[in-house]
# Entry
Amino acid sequence: MEKSIKDFLRKYIAHSNHASGVLGTCFSVVQYPKKALLIEEGQYARKAYYMISGAARSYYLQDGIEVCTWFAFEEDLLGNLQSYGGRPSSESIQLLEDSTLIEIRLEQLKKLAEKDLNASHLVTGVLEEYALFLEERLAHAQFMSSMDKYHALMEGEPEVFQRVSLTHIASYLGISRETLSRLRAK
# Structure
């Protein structure tokens, strides 16, 4: 099993050396080019991903306009709970750079989690991480002004401004690109 998959498992399972053999069938390391769609709105996503290297964004289509909801970089998970629940995705996930990822086959992992404690721990750890991410994202959306969101992004994820287009950043912040330019000038 590749070192990157073992490192991923170690993040969620205390004794990952014992688990890696059984869980190894659920994962593979893949590479995709910039602009590849990992998950497409309206489609059934059978896989989730863990970013080894690269960058991605999630977006919804609202009246034909892409509304960016998050960015992912190294050591981030990519997917959505709708996929895990077997429902069509309401969002799309697109790569912003050539990327290397761990591909997670969701159906295999779900079946394995029903009978293997390590797989169950992995799923629980991933779901907890995703729930915390969603809580933080909801708080930002509900309680922060565009200026506050901009400053939080600058302080918490400064690499976004080096690796993501201003158009996508403006969409994420819920402002126009012109407004973002004015904020950056201040």
DSSP finds nine helices and eight strands in the chain.
